[in-house]
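Priority: low. Protein: MOSC domain-containing protein YiiM. Input follows.
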Amino acid sequence: MENIIGTVVSVSRSTAHTFSKQPVDVIKLLAGLGVEGDAHMGKTVKHRSRVAQDPSQPNLRQIHLIHSELFDEVGKAGFRVEPGQMGENMTTRGIQLLGLPTGTKLYIGESAVVELTGLRNPCAQIDHFQSGLLQAVLDRDENGNLIRKAGVMGIVLAEGDVAPGDAIRMELPPEPFRPLERV
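Result:
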């Protein structure tokens, strides 16, 4: 396993299906379920649009992580975003979440382990939070392909408490790497 590559800036949860989540002192990650007390916790999908499609789908979105560097970036465009306001459970710093491959394991704090499953697909609710923010969290690469910058999703492999200041270590999956895709 590699050395420490990032830190937890903030942790958040919401018992209701709200766009923003409330920052708290600590969250408990539960293996195979997600964040204890969060509306998106469970073995099967909890996001309303996915429940409407097929409520028996496995929940690949048990935990949502956003890199705080995104807040710095959108801040330069005039937006003010604080941890938890874009619906993430964990805000990080120092780790290039979007560039990691599917299946990367993040070891967080003393015992929690999260496996990355894909990219968050930002929706129009972001513009209800702050008009124009949706466009600010999307980009295009040199070939015109859409780049989603609104964070990554994962599943909880090992439980543990996570709090601001906790270290994040990383273990890459076996090659060949598969880039994160929308989940």
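Residues 66 and 151 are 4 Å apart (CA to CA). The mean pLDDT is 95.
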